[in-house]
């Protein structure tokens, strides 16, 4: 392999990129736009749930419970109903997600230490949000009931009932903000998409423009052609990675607790594998449209669905869980969350780093094989 020829190919690709400012702008702006779009639009936080209240008791205890709902950040009372039919109608029209019906005699029964009924109606068409909102509502009602009973026992001089006092501590993401969970995984998905698309078109474009025959007439070897193109697009991919990290840390306020050096090294490793995958598709397709479609299907969908970015891998069927082991974004998402949120290092992430290294070597070999076959 001749390093001068590799540098010449890399220089040619850099000139091609610089002379096409629209493509360069698109390559650098796409990660930022995607991160802003998904970072702000995609949220797993459930708060300000629209709620309707129907208080049939109208006691001081029921009014206090209503006040608890209105004062909670998880619920937003948008209507106080006068009939059960009004509650059902607002839920049917998707005006509210939760309906709270406080039964008559609620105050007297809860002060007497008896069971007091509070009916919760939820719109199950959004099952995930409804399930989370149900947990919040049950916790709020249970806590209020316990406080009222404790106050009643204190007034009556009854002995205090001892109960478990759970001490809860959430580590790594103490505020439970979904943005801290989403943004690191989103960086992996974006880098996979951009890297695969960048290189999926470069060799196919050479065939369509007829310049590949000119390159083949030179002493250039397939490995030199592949490495030269990789150097150029690797630089852009790492620039995209820096943009994504800076945006995540300074705009979305995601904590970066781990080593920046380890983060950049693993990012480069992941970017190399994604670029090689795009190169292989480009060499196999010889058509830009087909190469683009193949890169989107094979990079975006696996990275989004099978990396653990949004959907937990442990909840997937066993067959799908086995498939995720060949998705490089799975390992990079784990690395990003470990470095960003947990601040862990090599001693914890070495298995994921090894898996990405193996993936990069295998895909580079496949891309080389494909290049040799096309050149031959």
Layout of secondary structure:
Blueprint: H1 3-18, H2 21-41, E1 49-55, H3 60-71, E2 75-80, H4 84-92, E3 98-102, H5 106-111, E4 118-122, H6 127-156, H7 178-200, H8 202-209, H9 212-216, H10 222-251, H11 260-285, H12 288-305, H13 318-323, H14 328-342, H15 346-375
Parallel strand pairs: 1-2, 1-3
Antiparallel strand pairs: 3-4
Helix pairs in contact: 1-10, 2-7, 2-10, 3-6, 7-10, 7-11, 7-12, 7-14, 8-11, 10-11, 11-12, 11-14, 11-15, 14-15
What does this 3D model show about the protein?
It is elongated, with a radius of gyration of 29 Å. Helix content is 68%, strand content 6%. The protein has a 4-stranded mixed sheet with strand order 2-1-3-4, with helices on both faces. It is of the alpha/beta class and 376 residues long. The protein has helices at 3-18, 21-41, 60-71, 84-92, 106-111, 127-156, 178-200, 202-209, 212-216, 222-251, 260-285, 288-305, 318-323, 328-342, 346-375, and strands at residues 49-55, 75-80, 98-102, 118-122. Mean pLDDT is 82; it is low at 160-166.
What structural keywords apply?
6% strand; 376 residues; single chain; abc type-2 transporter like fold; alpha/beta; four-stranded mixed beta sheet; 2 domains; 4 strands
Distance linking N and C termini? 18 Å
**Subunit organisation of the chains:** single chain
- What structural class should be given to the helix and strand makeup? alpha/beta
Number of strands: 4
Report the biggest beta sheet as strand number plus sense, adding barrel if it closes: 4 strands, mixed
Give me the side-by-side strand order of the main sheet. Answer: 2-1-3-4
Strand content is: 5-15%
Outline the low-pLDDT stretches. Answer: 160-166
Question: Nearest-angstrom radius of gyration?
Answer: 29 Å
How many H/I helices? 15
Shape: elongated
Determine the fraction of residues in helical runs and give it as a percent range: 55-70%
Average pLDDT, to the nearest integer? 82
Number of domains: 2
Order of helices and strands: HHEHEHEHEHHHHHHHHHH
